[in-house]
Amino acid sequence: MYRWTSLLLVFGFLTGCVNPQVTTRTARTSVEQLLLTQAVSKSLTNPSQSDFPLPSGATVKVDLTGLTEDRTFLGAAIEGWLGEKGYLVRKSQETATYRLHILVNAFGTEYGESFLGMPAIQSTFIPFALPEITMYRSQRQFGRVQYSMNIFEEQTGKLVNTLTTHEGQTFHRLYTILFFFSYLDTNLDYIPE
């Protein structure tokens, strides 16, 4: 009887706690979405962007070119920014005095991870899994947006002005030390739980 009790206790301690990981149901996780949207906000609130070289109340069309489909969000954010500055934003089929051509150089996230410890092990011979034993883990995620703007006269196609490159960066870093001590370092305004 003592052997069976000892054996059950040993198996009980070896099984440990395993938290199942659920994958995202959306194309981007909430952290990735916040990284990108807040990077766009940072690029538009840069102090150097306060002076815009068009007369107040001018009508403007926004035209975007980039490699990702996510650039439509950037276009909508810039249209809102122009509206806040007092410009009248027109859709592509409407007439406008100026056309703002935006070349999106980068709009995405990067992810990196460092791990020191023993990864979770699922055995085919033993009917239970060994949990991950983390000595140190670092999960780093960065959001970056970079674009440039050219302003053209809509009727003539003449280049009026080339604005400097706009850039916004965000980061979200999660550190785990000795199994369960965690530390979060981020410049996001809202952090999902």
TrEMBL record:
It comes from the Bacteria. This is DUF4136 domain-containing protein.
